[in-house]
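=== RUN LOG ===
request id: a7f3
mode: sequence -> structure
chains: 1
length: 177
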Amino acid sequence: MATEDIAAAWQRALTVLQRRPQVGVHDDAPATARWAGDLRVVSSHADGTQMITDMPAELGGAGDRVTPGWLFRAGLAACLATRIAMGAAAQGIALTALEVRSTSSSDLRGLLGMPDTDGARVGAGPIGVHLAVQIAAPGVAREDLQRLVEQSYCCSPMSAALRDAVPVSLAIETDSN
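=== RESULT ===
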């Protein structure tokens, strides 16, 4: 889709949502993850798209697939890159390069349910996440690109989910055959 088409779609969405804000609230497409044996899990989208994850050999997996944690980082990076591209198009900025790198640090003890040396719970999630953006657009001031990235970060849904600690509910169904 050309930059002009993205900008036009952006403007149409703004117009509709300004008139009818309630239209903006919707259910997102579910992701369904099914255990496929060993430590492999197949995650599926309703459109049929599938992604297989596994764990590294050091943790009992085959180590030949990406991990769920990597999918998380990839989703975070892709979401921000998408939002930056949308924002650039809406502002008429022609990007020539855009790359978002998402890294994190974790403490494996949290995944394994191990306590810290003082007995305190070790978190299973990342200790910290870092996003690095490389962006280029000829004739656009550095400050304008910086502002575009910062505004996009504030509106990136996955970044917001981390930043704003979205509530998560858990429902459990068991079958004891």
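=== NOTES ===
The chain is about 35% helix and 15% strand.
The helical segments are 3-19, 68-90, 108-111, 142-155, 157-163.
=== END ===
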